[in-house]
Amino acid sequence: MSDTDTEDTLPERLPLDAWHRDHGARMVPFAGYEMPIQYAGEHGGIVAEHNWTRQSVGLFDVSHMGQLTVSGEGATAALETLLPGALSTLKPGNMRYSLLLDENGGILDDLIVTNISRDGVEEFYIVVNGAVKWDDIAHLREHLPDDIVLNHMADQALLALQGPKAAEVLDSIFPGVAEQLSFMQGTGFEWEGVMIGVGRSGYTGEDGFEINCPASHVVKLADLLVADGRVNPVGLGARDSLRLEAGLPLYGHDLTTETDPVSAGLLFALTKSRRESGGWMGHGPVAQVLAEGPKQKRVGLTLEGRQPGREGALVFSGDTQVGTITSGGFSPTLGHPIAMAYVDAEFTQEGTPLDVEVRGKRLPAKVAPLPFVPHRYHRKGA
Amino acid sequence: MPRYFTEEHEWIEVDGDTATIGITDYAQEQLGDVVFVEVPQTGAELAKGAEAAVVESVKAASDVYAPISGTVLEGNAALEADPELVNTSPDDEGWFFKLTVADKDELEGLMDAKAYKAFCDSL
To answer: Which domains does chain A have, with CATH numbers?
Structure first.
């Protein structure tokens, strides 16, 4: 986790700050907040928390992330000028992974957008990364028309409930909610006098939910969730190893303004019709990469032995440097090191043998398909 | 046998001319789950403060520096297959390497167990 706060200001405290400390969390600065990297106790520690999430349910506090709403007549069309995915075909209650791109097609952020339009009023709920949320807000405000309302839900907390038993747990607290949601669908309802939102999504590769509620009610909600023996709190450390196993890129590491959606392997975020029709910021340069093929691509690497190759480690084919690791670590599920790297296109074939340089040594590695650990999302009818 | 401690959270147990070196319980707790350890080669001459070993946890990579000068007698081969010994038995089975003590004067100024505990409490 290298995302320490680079600002001179002191990190902010999350609504659950005291709750984390009471649960034995070790707090570290991340994305401008003090956040739990791992917890103490019998179920604590990155590997134990990681495995618990894969086997049962982990509760993650992701309240540092930016929760925004964009609304008003024409909001759909206005957002489509900034996101490469189609929103006009996104039905109310459905969610989509998308990107904010700059004029050069570089990635400003990745995000999840949910259509929460009701009664003919266009409205979208967007969750962006914590570390860049202020830049995102400035970017959106600058480029959205003045009559489109951009609201930052600064007093809204966000929890992620992730794991194979997440639906059972959610069902015991909010009966009937899980069964009406397929992966990437969301809903909202009243609870304890406030509105909460639930989306069937997450960043671990497991089935799970992201639940937003007012900060005033988040302690109560977190208590209710961990009172269930199937649920343990899980920190940032395991969140990182889980998303790495799931092959999910992390903004600021695997995605930056120096990377574009094609090289990053995020073609699914570019709705097909819009790849040609354009009309979104960054389309020209991205279309060019699409036409010519990317010089480098994001790939998975599995390393022999036990020593991890981490962010910044150089990737070689023979004596030639052909890439760089953008995130890497030890996979608790697989028991060996894994990494994501940008590698010259000619070396991205699955199984291609490469070397990773770690501390002056070359570690043998192979290009591996992503995800490293299969996703277990809940898709209705699947 | 006397055991000494450094501010880098290493312990040094001295038996005659031989010193065994490991990292403390505090250090393993801070590192978290250890997944890989590289120990120095037998015969390597280490100067005080030189990089001697590498310990990698799920979270991060850290260097272990030679707390005193000496010639490496043996690295702990068990750590290759069971790096988690550093977590489960940091003071004993999870030792890193042994060396011959080149200069006993270098032990002066290192902390004893009581001073080290006070040092950790102050962190």
So the answer is: 295-368 (2.40.30.110)
